[in-house]
Amino acid sequence: MGLFARELEQASDERLMELVRKGDEPAFAALYDRYQGRLMSYFHRMLWKDRERAQDFVQELFTKLAQRPESYDPSRPFSTWLFSVANNLCKNEYRREEVRKRAEPELRYNGQGVQEAKGGDGVDRAAFRERLDAELDRLEPDHKATFVMRYHEDMAIKEIAGALGCSEGTVKSRLFYTLKKLAERLKEFDPRLMHHGQGDLRS
Amino acid sequence: MAKEIYDPEDLESLMSERGFDELLEEERAFVLRHLSGRDEYERMRALLGHLRDAGRDQEPLEAHPVVKERVMAAFREAQQPTWRIWLNSLGGWLFPPQAQGFWRPALAFATLALVVTAGVLGYQRLADDRQQQVAEVRREKAEEPVPAHTREQATEEPSEELNAELERPAEAEAEGAAARQPIELAEVRSAEVVEDDAVMKDLDMEVAEEEPATLRSEAFAPAAADVAQVQADSFTDEMLVTDKALSEVARMPESQATYSADVQEVVVEAARTNRREKKESGDALGNVAMEDRSLAANPGIMALLQPGW
User: Fold this and answer.
1) Which of A13, A112, B254, B266 is the most buried (most CB within 10 A)?
2) pTM, whole model, 2 decimals?
């Protein structure tokens, strides 16, 4: 039996998924509305800032969910399960992209083309985001997924561990080394260095 | 001393709140157990700050409404009963969107029509074989004694063309027998009359020649009556036998016409033989009477009889 709109909004993900398994269309629509934005952002980050591709992946993910709702394991949190599926889709896409990259070596991942951050009092945020995305693309897929889930999707360590199918210690370790590596590669955006550089120029 | 596990939540909270110079001795010791020094701490702190700012400034991404429509359509399709999906696929197969796809249903229907036609023709051939078998059975049944009027009705039915063809020789024979029947009957009856008249004439002649006196006729009257009675019985028997045989022939079916004609001839022949035998026996009786009459002519015997009279 379906729920009213307000009840659907307040119902937990797991309850909605239970209704979806019984064929409740409004429950499925509520789940879509609840997660499509987060998944869109996640795919957008994970798939080289390609909005169209991210949209395709959102559609693919929810189509799989519509066709096989019984594949959801009720013992797991829905969000964790959903992001694990999304992560697997991204991994598959990375493999396909690897094949494409071998066929067209100069088409993508050209770090030399990334625009350098401009100096100044403030940090050029657009330039930082662009550079950050470029550096994220150079990371291992698992490290990148961990980083995106943690710093873009604001997921807890436990959730990330559940989504990626690893221990919480592994997640912490990945996050530490990713953050350390990115800080080293993006040190030009360190305000102290920028101020030192400006001071050097002045002097 | 075992290395402490890095806890990003602890370290991040420190980085987000204070710089390296602002950390307490214990906190700085904790940081230095994981990081190389002040520079690294500050770089990481700056990166985390940029990440927060970048996330804050970034517009939330939304999928296009078309994506939702497609996803909901996929959900509705997945919830359809299996038979409806099967019907939809059948409709798509029967009425393809492109004209080039019509050859599939056309070929399928042509094949189906061919199979149905072959099946109907095969069934008809099988039915014909069965009808021939039934016709043979009916022919065997027709050989049983059936009243003439029933047989005629059966032979006049137009649906039994094959049977009519098969029964045609029997009918022809029956017609031939029927045509022969009156002639033979006439011959038999005329022969009987002639022979009977001849017998009676012979008897009369013999009686007239051999009867010299009334006494003699009175003396031989019982014997003559016996002869006449025997002849009358013989004639009656012959007529009965002949009439019986003819009635039997008339009751026989045309299919047995040949057989009945033969039987009729045999019966007529038997009647002739019987009559001939009776005639001969009658002649024998006549001789006995003549002998009796010759005894009456014997004077010795007559002398013996005279005292009795």
Assistant:
1) B254
2) 0.50
